[in-house]
Write a structure and sequence with these properties.
about 140 residues; globular
Length: about 140
């Protein structure tokens, strides 16, 4: 991931984070639309889950220049998600919902460069979390 990719991710996430409640709602609405089978995995208040999602993304994005710290965070999340019965195939749905949310929320700001940066970041996130879940 290049410095330009990191800058694009941080800039676009800042836009989303200013509207974090709405962004999380859009994300989960889309996730449950494209993958209704994952809905039962979410036992608690989805609004609270949305807040956790946005804060976790905030921390992950803040540590993009600290690869070791980011890996530790993602491995912990991966092991935790395994305990919630998240399967590797679910990560594809989450990625699709994330990119759709970005495209929808950023509108003209969702450029091909932004899409490439976020797609690359999410692929790394998913691979690290899946690897940690399988290793545990």
């Amino acid at each position: 991931m290049t410095e330009n990719d990191i800058a694009l991710i941080r800039e676009t996430f800042a836009h989303l984070h200013r509207r974090k409640t709405e962004t999380a709602r859009i994300f989960y609405d889309r996730l449950f639309e494209i993958a209704p089978e994952v809905r039962p995995l979410f036992k608690g208040d989805i609004k609270a889950q949305g807040a956790k999602l946005m804060e976790t993304l905030l921390v992950a994005i803040a540590t993009l220049n600290d690869r070791d710290g980011l890996t530790i965070l993602l491995e912990k999340l991966g092991r935790g998600h395994r305990d919630y019965h998240v399967e590797p195939r679910h990560y594809d749905h989450v990625g699709a919902a994330l990119i759709w949310t970005l495209r929808t929320s950023l509108a003209d700001g969702f450029t091909p460069a932004v899409e490439r940066a976020w797609t690359s970041l999410y692929a790394d996130i998913a691979a690290t979390m899946i690897g940690a879940a399988k290793a545990a």
